[in-house]
Specification:
By secondary structure, the chain is α/β, with parallel strands linked by helices. The chain is built from 17 helices and 25 strands. Helix 1 crosses helix 8, helix 3 runs antiparallel to helix 7 and helix 6 packs across helix 16. The structure holds glyceraldehyde-3-phosphate.
Length: about 525
């Protein structure tokens, strides 16, 4: 068990990686504080510095990526798959010994519990391993020739270009890597803009990235998003946007590109996943799943349950059991054993959540756990449960992304469906019930509103073999180990007439192993 407090934080100086060189001076920095100590009489603790580069320096990172890409002629986009697999494997092996330090920095900076921080690291390693295997399978499948219309052809996947990669603060390692790793392994080059929290651990990865990939293939830095990202996209040098964050920010960024048709986006955005608790559900199961679904990592998950629709016939009993469990959750610092609710990294969040509660109450909602629900102690926000929340309340419309759980009673599931049809969100839903005659037709309606229907279980992203996507303002493109490799590449093919000269030429290329692309070599 690691219970080290931030006083032991390494003195990280906010370095950056551009064009194969790690820099530690010549640009502004910002102090990074752990809000995890900001409870009671204690304040935040200074735990390091992060780069705060200006527009010019950020543009120089984009330029380093441009040079590495070299219009698709650089060593990385031209590398053989085996070479890319070897580089990513080497990087993973350099990352493994950093596990404890990375997890500590995650814990201190974003308040993720020690257990959850380790789980974030471990699932990231699993994701890398699964991606390595999936690439091999992709290559095996692509090595076969196809015959059609008198032509023989080989179809493979080729990289897209310079990728701007921006992950979220709630999974700054895992979610960033679920775009970064597939983009990289498919031969793209990267500019990584580090999330606004969860910044410090990147410093530990600069040398592994520098040593395992050709210069300029991975560039890592940070600065004020509004000042640096728009100008970078405006250059037209960025081909792909991989962004996990809010839809207004994604919209702003996309509009900057001078050639929108050349600009691909893979986006994970807002969500307001409802739970629909039907009258015939297993109540204890529904309560437990809704608890985990709404309050794991303080509700700071895009997949969190953010609105609980409960059939009026059991809303009283559901709320009673739910509140008992919510008020029993251990709240405290992220390194405390068994802690479940931890300080929020965003210092503006407690005031925002408080305003959502006040708005809901002004519209008739009631605080179901007044003993401690909604109490603020520094960065710690005690989870609040609101009942009788009207759909006009901001809490029913905005993504709270924090430990406030709204309960909306319903009589007719049609009202829930109408809410979902009219909602701008379209990620997931959880359905609690037992009658196939009711659930079956509901599924048919819900599949056209969201992209994952969870039966008697909470919403979640994993396992990563499943597609992770959404409709409307919730996502663009699909991520999974399988899909991400396709999202960050394009099919490109070689075709020749199926005649003697066509066959002879192709045979010559294959036998002489003269092409990295046109090849039947199997990656083992
Ligand atoms: O914040 C969004 C994450 O992808 C959620 O992942 O459902 O595994 O917590 P999770």
């Amino acid at each position: 068990m690691n219970a080290a407090i931030p006083a032991n934080a390494p003195n990280l100086k906010g370095r950056i990686l551009i064009g194969g060189t790690v820099h530690e001076s010549g640009y502004a920095r910002k102090q990074v504080f752990s809000q995890s100590t900001a409870i009671g009489t204690m304040g935040p603790t200074l735990i390091g510095e992060t780069p705060n580069v200006d527009k010019e320096l950020f543009l120089s990172a984009v330029d380093a990526a441009r040079i590495a890409w070299a219009r698709g002629q650089g060593p990385w986009p031209l590398a053989r798959t085996e070479e890319r697999l070897a580089a990513v494997t080497q990087f993973r092996d350099r990352m493994l010994p950093l596990r404890k330090q990375i997890c500590q920095l995650l814990m201190w900076e974003i308040g993720k519990s020690w257990v959850d921080a380790q789980s974030e690291f471990d699932r990231t390693i699993t994701y890398i391993n699964d991606t390595l295997e999936e690439v091999k399978q992709l290559e095996r499948d692509a090595s076969r020739f196809q015959f059609a219309g008198g032509l023989l052809a080989q179809i493979r996947r080729a990289p897209l270009g310079v990728t701007l990669c921006m992950g979220p603060f709630n999974y700054p390692l895992n979610e960033t890597f679920t775009t970064l790793i597939p983009a990289l392994i498919m031969g793209n080059v990267l500019v990584v803009k580090v999330p606004r929290y969860g910044q410090l651990f990147w410093d530990l990865l600069l040398e592994p990235f520098r040593d395992c990939f050709p210069a300029g293939v991975v560039n890592i830095l940070n600065g004020h998003g509004r000042e640096i990202v728009g100008p970078a996209v405006k250059t037209g040098l960025i081909d792909v946007l991989a962004f996990i964050g809010s839809s207004p920010v994604a919209n702003r960024i996309k509009q900057e590109h001078p050639h929108p048709n050349r600009f691909r986006s893979i986006l994970g955005l807002d969500a307001k996943n409802p739970a629909i608790v039907l009258a015939d559900c297993d109540l204890d199961l529904a309560v437990n799943e809704c608890l985990r679904g709404s309050l794991s990592f303080n509700g700071q998950r895009c997949t969190a349950l953010k609105l609980l629709f409960v059939h009026r016939s059991l809303v009283f009993e559901f709320t009673r059991r739910f509140v008992l469990k919510v008020d029993a959750l251990k709240c405290g610092m992220p390194w405390e054993p068994d802690v479940q609710i931890t300080p929020l990294p965003d210092t503006e969040k407690p005031a925002y959540l408080t305003s959502l509660i006040a708005d809901a109450q002004s519209r008739g909602a009631k605080l179901a756990n007044p003993d401690r629900g909604g109490r603020v102690d520094g960065a710690l926000f005690y989870p609040a449960v609101l009942t009788d929340v009207p759909l006009t309340a901001r809490l029913a419309q905005e993504e709270q992304f924090g430990p406030v759980v709204p309960i909306v009673p319903f009589d007719d599931v049609g009202t829930v469906l109408t809410y979902m049809v009219e909602s701008k969100y379209g990620a997931q839903v959880s359905l609690f019930g037992s009658n196939p005659e009711v659930i079956g037709p509901l599924i048919d309606r819900l599949v056209n509103q969201v992209c994952r229907i969870n039966l008697n279980t909470q919403c979640q992203r994993g396992p990563d073999v499943f597609p992770f996507t959404g409709r409307k303002d919730s996502a663009e493109g699909t991520l999974s180990v399988y899909d991400a490799l396709r999202s960050f590449s394009i099919r490109s093919m070689v075709a020749a007439k199926q005649d003697a000269s066509g066959k002879t030429l192709i045979r010559g290329i294959l036998d002489g192993d003269t092409s990295r692309f046109l090849s039947t070599n199997i990656v083992l």
